[in-house]
Amino acid sequence: NPVRFHSVPAFAAATDLAIDVPGRGKVVVDIAYGGTFYAFLSAEQLGLDVCSSRTRDLVSAASAVTEAVKKQFKLHHPESEDLAFLYGTILTDGKDAFSEEPTTNICVFADEQVDRSPTGSGVTARIALQYHKGLIQLDQTRTFRSSTTGSLFTGKAVKATKFGNYNAVIVEVSGEAFYTGTATFTVEEEDPLKHGFFFK
């Protein structure tokens, strides 16, 4: 059965933000928080297709957007400035309006890493953006597909709330996971470190 969780308060930090990406021109991005901050834009703005372009090309383009946004836009987190940083960029198929059909994205984060899934915090942030823009309503479920593996998550805004000065939502994210192995740990009575140890 799918596993579900409710997110931290998620919100749109900026919409329709014009960013100059060196070597790629100007693009328009949205920035949202779903546990961490992401920049969102359609791959089409970068001359790519999130469903058919090479992953390496998508990663390179998304990374360039991340670096450009970091230099051109200052983030703010209502509770902790330690969290006020852009974790990555999510390229989408541009299908943000509510639909029963899945919408596809790729999440490029940290040091050009690619998520195998549609990304829990990314789905959360993307739902918050769509709700902020009036594209979805509370309790409308959307399905998100990973462009790399085809894996699916669903997300829906289940509650409107406030987070600092931001209008936010709590998002329910659902997805499937499968066991890939088990581990057994053994403690021997004679082990002098069986209870652990401290450094002074």
The percent range for strand residues is 35-45%
Question: How many structural domains are formed by the residues?
Answer: 1
Question: What string gives the helices and strands in order?
Answer: EEEEHEEEHEEE
Unreliable spans are: none
Q: What is the number of beta strands?
A: 10
- The chain-level structural class is alpha+beta
Helix content: 10-25%
**Name given to the CATH homologous superfamily:** Diaminopimelate Epimerase, Chain A, domain 1
- Form type: globular
CATH class term = Alpha Beta
| First-last Cα distance | 46 Å
Rounded to an integer in angstroms, the radius of gyration calculated over CA atoms is: 19 Å
Largest sheet: 10 strands, mixed
Mean pLDDT, to the nearest integer, reads 96
Under the CATH scheme, the architecture is Roll
Oligomeric state of the chains in view: single chain
The CATH topology, please?
Diaminopimelate Epimerase, Chain A, domain 1
Q: Could you explain how this protein is built, in words?
A:
Homodimer. Its EC number is 4.2.1.77. It catalyses: trans-3-hydroxy-L-proline = 1-pyrroline-2-carboxylate + H2O. This is trans-L-3-hydroxyproline dehydratase. By secondary structure, this protein is an alpha+beta fold. The protein has one domain (3-175): Diaminopimelate Epimerase, Chain A, domain 1, CATH 3.10.310. Helix content is 16%, strand content 36%. It contains 2 helices and 10 strands; from the N terminus they run ββββαβββαβββ. Strands 1, 2, 3, 4, 5, 6, 7, 8, 9 and 10 form a 10-stranded mixed β-sheet that branches. Strand 3 and strand 4 form a beta hairpin. The mean pLDDT is 96.
